[in-house]
Amino acid sequence: MALSSKHPRLFNQIRTFVNVKVKWVRDPYLDTAVLKEKDLKQTISLKNQIISSPSESVSMYTASQLKASLNLPTTTTKFIDKYRCVFTQFQPGPGLPPVVKLTPQAFSLHKEEMAVHNSPTNREETVHRLARLLMLAGMEKLPLYVIEKLKWDMGLPHDYVTTLLSDYPDYFDVCVVEDPSSGKELLALELVSWRKELSVSELQKSAMSLGYVGDKRRHGITFPIFLPKGFDLEKRVKAWVENWQKLPYVSPYEDAFHLDSNSDQAEKWTVAILHELLSLLVSKKTERENLLCFGECLGLALRFKKALVHHPGIFYISNKIRTQTVVLREAYRNDILVKKHPLMGVRYWYINLMHKT
């Protein structure tokens, strides 16, 4: 799905990155930020399955069939028993199979969560972030399976297709695209029209707040870098990063496929896309697999892999919770989100409830 460009070659196409391996250093604070959400996605996913039933409960047999689809780390029975303050089992009658439903505290949190999803302010903000996701790298279409992978991190309602997209026909349409690898037709989400007012990255907004305009904005934008204690870049790498930061900033909403893929300028554009994508997520982090899946749609998966390794001061890769999670460093102070989306506030209440005894 990578787009061809009509732009001339505006920038110097030079690759100078030194051929050394940038070491990985563990960041205990960001590992904690990832670890604190252990089982949270699975808990809320199971909660959504239960609450979607007309009786707001499901039989334990039905619940047991959800283990694979919800990616539960253990059997459904053990999972439900582990989080007794969220789920409760009861016997509906003599001889009937046991049933699971939400505890009163969990049901109350669910209503708070729905209030956030349904608030006009949050709905508009979510729609704008989703539109910007579709606009990254000049794209306007994205297969639905990719959005499904990012749904949790984007903070979309679990039934977003019917409860959100259908209410914004002036923004979105569902269409069919061809998978370039298999030739099969896939359902995709399409942006009805380009939204120029939304095609301003978070870094550009910061630059504008400092009075940067025109070429000064393009040349003056640098990526915030936060290295953990004990992390010292080699002199050669440090010098390269300093020079790389001075290169012109290319917006992640621009089609810059005209740039030589092996150039430093192309890498700065790639980092801009990754930075903006993580900025669009409510928790400013996601599984590495999700980023690479998105990158494949752009034809940038290999470049994504390299950029994540080359820039440990911008991105941190945590190996906790049986996966690799990419965290946007600047979004956290120690293990705390700097700017907390309202939905994250509710999720942290779920975490508190999960750990009650």
Automatic annotation (TrEMBL):
Q: Which residues form the PORR domain?
A: 25-356
InterPro entries this protein is in? PORR_domain, PORR_fam
Q: Which molecular function GO terms apply here?
A: RNA binding
Name of this chain's protein: PORR domain-containing protein
Naturally occurring in which organism (per UniProt) = Cajanus cajan
Q: What is the lineage of its organism?
A: Eukaryota, Viridiplantae, Streptophyta, Embryophyta, Tracheophyta
